[in-house]
């Protein structure tokens, strides 16, 4: 295979895409305020401690707006507003009215899709192709799907029960799919009649704040959704708040553990969607070219900032060289650059801190004996970028095989027998997702039932649908989002009299 780790050579001229005409999406559709306040009780309020912080375009490193830094008193105010709305206007809103409001949110998201997509790429660094074709349509799809459930909840749980809302829900989300994670959280909570305090990630608050306009236009009563931006302190205050009935958290396993401790003290219900180190198993009877595309989609979608990224590729030994050669060739054709360019495959790394972590883990992998292969086409000279990278010669004891990189870095390992594939696939503490490629249907079932993962994709990867529950096990958390199962966390079931 083409191992260029010893002395990286520039790609051949034909492979550098020299002369590829840029096709940047215009940003004129987005109107940015200089400064954003907190959205509490149906009004914009300055943060109680009077502090704002810059949100930065990761493709340039330049600030694009200031975001309010919420703190404990703001969380108190937001929880109080959510409680008042829960007992007042939202309780008086019938299930079918809720359904109509959710449907309107979905339609308004579709109407303003381009604006949301451009803002998402500007603030988070993901390629416009992905925010346009994945994040925003899927966010709308989650509201459409849950609009359908809002007036059918009693039937969702098998009859003989009433599904009651849990109350005030605290929702804390990460930066990798900012709008989509907000939709995954808000849509089921609202469908079931709960009110919400949402805490976006500090580097990517803008699309949640733009969503306020959509929620208002859709007719959502004041106080039903409150948005408190800020850092980990604001999230911690929300997680520990005694007035919150349920916490839904998506983020790192480390923070998830601290939230579990906090909710143990309050008794709030909890769901955790945490990190992953997902195995992607390629058997020797897999259709190679399709499986290569699956591996590409598995690790390089959204720069690898994906909780369920197929970051550990397990290839059957007899095809390992041929497969890796094709994968390296395909990797060399990925275009890294301006997230707003419609040609871009790999955009910017979300923050300087994340780039430093990716860089460090790659250096550790080399020091432990893995071989680095990466594209050498020039990266943009400003902003935070990292080339698509493959490590070969990886052993299950290497840190690159165990720890979540959360970047465009793939660890390739080999196996001889299906049993060995399962043993290697299950050799991390995580259990979020996995993939299997084979032409043998029975082998798909054999493999899937042995993989310790919440989601297993067969002959595809990174497929999401609001009707399909998503979630992990072990260090990847518990609870499901999407599907009927995703509603469980947002209802209390009472026997129908
Ligand atoms: P993170 O845990 O650092 O932060 C997530 C959110 O928690 C942010 O809003 C942050 O401000 C907040 N937070 C930080 N410290 C907190 C504290 N002590 N108490 C309460 N809230 C706190 O994670 P991240 O770096 O933003 O996101 C990346 C991680 O998220 C990765 O591990 C990834 O795998 C995971 N993730 C999981 C899923 C899933 O569905 N399982 C989806 C997306 C991302």
Helix count, DSSP H or I runs of 4 or more residues: 14
| CATH class type of the largest domain | Alpha Beta
Distance between the termini: 69 Å
Mean pLDDT: 95
Helix content: 25-40%
Which residues sit in consecutive blocks of at least 5 with pLDDT less than 50? Answer: 1-16
The tally of beta strands, per DSSP, is 20
Kindly estimate the percentage of residues that lie in beta strands according to DSSP.
15-25%
Radius of gyration: 23 Å
Largest sheet: 7 strands, mixed
Going across the major beta sheet, what is the strand order?
14-15-16-13-12-17-18
**What's the CATH topology name of the largest domain?**
Aldehyde Dehydrogenase, Chain A, domain 1
Q: Which small compounds were modeled alongside the protein?
A: nicotinamide-adenine-dinucleotide
How many domain modules?
2
3D shape: globular
CATH architecture assignment of the largest domain: 3-Layer(aba) Sandwich
CATH superfamily of the largest domain: Aldehyde Dehydrogenase, Chain A, domain 1
